[in-house]
Every structure is written in C-alpha cells, then in structure tokens.
Amino acid sequence: MQSKNWILIGSIAVTGIAAAMLFFIWPYHTTRTEVWASFWAILVGVTVTIVLLATAPDKKEFLNYFLFALCGGALGWVIGIVASPATSEEERVFGEYKTAIVGFLSGFAVSKINDLWKLLSEGPQPRLFTPGVLNRVLLFFGIFFLLVANQYNLRQANIGQLIVSASVQPAEALISQSLGSVTITPGATVTLKGAAAFPEMDVDWNKRPDSGAFPAALTLKAATVTVPDDSALKEAVDGDQATFVATSRYNKSRTGTLVLILKRPPKAAGGAAKEPPKANSTAAPATTKAQTP
User: Fold this and answer.
1) Counting Cβ atoms within 10 Å, is residue 172 exposed (0-12), middle (13-18) or buried (19+)?
2) pLDDT value at position 217?
C-alpha cells in the first residue's frame, strides 16, 4: 500500500512540476516549432519518470535509473546548444569548444570507451544484453538524443527572427506607442527600424495593400514613411490603419509587422486643432517579434 501511495504521489508531483514548467515557459515561445519542441520534451520526461516510478522495485533502483536519465539529458542539452550556434559570437566560441571536445574524444576518451565496450560485450553472455544494463544504456541515450533534438530545434527556430520598431518626427506627432503599433497625427514622418537575428541583419520593408484613404495616402521610401498633412487626408477617419511588413533578407519566411494608426489632435473651441500631447520620453519603443507562418 505504501508503495502504491508513493507512486501516486510521485506521479502527481512530477505532472504538476511539468505543467508549471510549460505554463511559465509558454509566453517566451514565439513560434510553433519552439512550442512543440518544449512540449514533447516535457511530455516524454514526465512519461519516463512515471514509468520508472511504477516499475522500479524500490526507491534506490528508481534513483539509479533517474540519474542515468538525468545525466543523458544534461549531456544532450549541452551538445544541442554547442551544435546550434545562434550568433556569430557563439559560432566562434562553440567552434573552440568543438575542437577541444574532438581532441578529448579522439585521445583519452576513446581508449576508455573501448575498454568499457569490451567489458560489456565480451563473454558467453555479454553484460550489455542483460536487462539491467541494456535498460540503463537505452534510457541514457534516449534522453540524450531527445534533448539534443530539443535544443537544436529551439535555437534554430530563432534564426532570422525579426524585431521591429519605429521613431516619429516631429516628436509632437506621436500620440502613443504599443507593442507593434504607433498612433500618429497627420504630417508625421515615421522611420521604420528592423533587425533580423544572426546570420543576416538586414530587412526589407513593404507596405501591405490595405484598403482605405489613409494607407493609400502614405508613401514609403526605403524605411521612411511620409504621412501627408490633414488637407490630403480629408477622406481618412480617425482609427484608420496602415500595415508595414519587414522581411528578413536571409529567411524570407521571417516577417515582422508594424501598424500605423491615424489620430487627429482634438480641436480647440475656436476650431483650431489642439497641440497633441507629447509622447512620454521614457516610454519604450514599439517592438514586436516575428511569428512563423
């Protein structure tokens, strides 16, 4: 009875920890590739732990198997990171690590691995094929390759990711900024800013063919958007939007969008427009991360 209670309590605890991990890391995932890579890694880890809890004859045996899985996972995590540099600096540093690892494996480690292989494979009944040894070897390498694939997918998913923002001149033409949008008055000049992650930093800007008087009146030259004055926007209404899309030159599937929203300043009692409130100088620039289609 105590054994069953221990298995039940342990399974609930592991599931709860996994659910908490998924909940807290979910907001930091920006692509479906990242989400599924983390989801499957956590799911497999939970399943393996519950199976070990249910099948291990005692706590010591469970701990032994769990340590094999933990060591395989930790090694796979590191190898997955080293195998997928995300920046030129990481590529340089990881290249040095790879050289050191290859040197270690080709020298000292090869002889020790060879001795271990002889110990496990020789004899009329090789130890490698006994259930205790074979299960531990399969568990170690299974978790190892799972974490290598997990880290590789997560890090490669960020290659070419975009971050976009904008600056507005004159400053009084900026009404407000939020994540991925800028509210402006007529007569503003908006400089679009975008950068892609390693290996290609440049982006190309294009105006989405939105319908309406406001998008049609805007002109885009390079990364500068010119908004005409109010006399040229008579048919536009407050709240009209124009969408601009940044595309990574390295990875065309990576895009980021920035929305310009028209807002006329309120008019004074005499009919003249009031000066719009100045933007908060401490406000963070509007940025948005790219989404994978």
Assistant:
1) middle
2) 92
Structure tokens at 1: 């009875």
Distance CA 150, CA 34 (A): 9
What DSSP string describes 122-184? -SSS-GGGSHHHHHHHHHHHHHHHHHHHHHHHHHHTTTT-EEEEEEEESGGGEEEEETTEEEE
* Token pair of 125 as six digits: 């009944």
Residue 94: which residues within 8 A CB-CB, separation 6 or more? Answer: 81, 82, 85
Res 283 pLDDT > 50? no
Nearest-angstrom CA–CA distance, 185 and 227 = 8
**181-184 and 255-262 as β-strands: parallel, antiparallel, unpaired?**
parallel
Nearest to 243 by CA among 226, 256, 230: 256
Amino acid (1-letter code) at residue 36: W
Judged on CB neighbours under 10 Å (0-12, 13-18, 19+), 69 is buried
Tokens of 195: 């950068």
Strands (E), the chain: 162-169, 174-178, 181-184, 189-196, 203-207, 219-221, 224-226, 241-248, 255-262, 288-289
Taking the complete model, does pTM exceed 0.90, yes or no?
no
CA distances from 104 to 107, 114, 142 (A): 5, 14, 23
Separation between Cα atoms, residue 289 and residue 59, nearest integer Å: 46
Domains (range + CATH), the chain: 2-156 (no CATH), 162-289 (2.60.40.60)
33: left (phi over 0), alpha (psi -120 to 50) or beta: alpha
Rounded-to-integer distance, Cα 82 and Cα 94, Å: 6
Alpha helices, DSSP H, located in 157-238: 213-217
* Res 292: pLDDT: 42
Radius of gyration of the chain from its Cα atoms, rounded to whole angstroms: 29
Closest CA to 75 of 142, 8, 17: 142
Between 10 and 64, where is the model more confident? Answer: 64
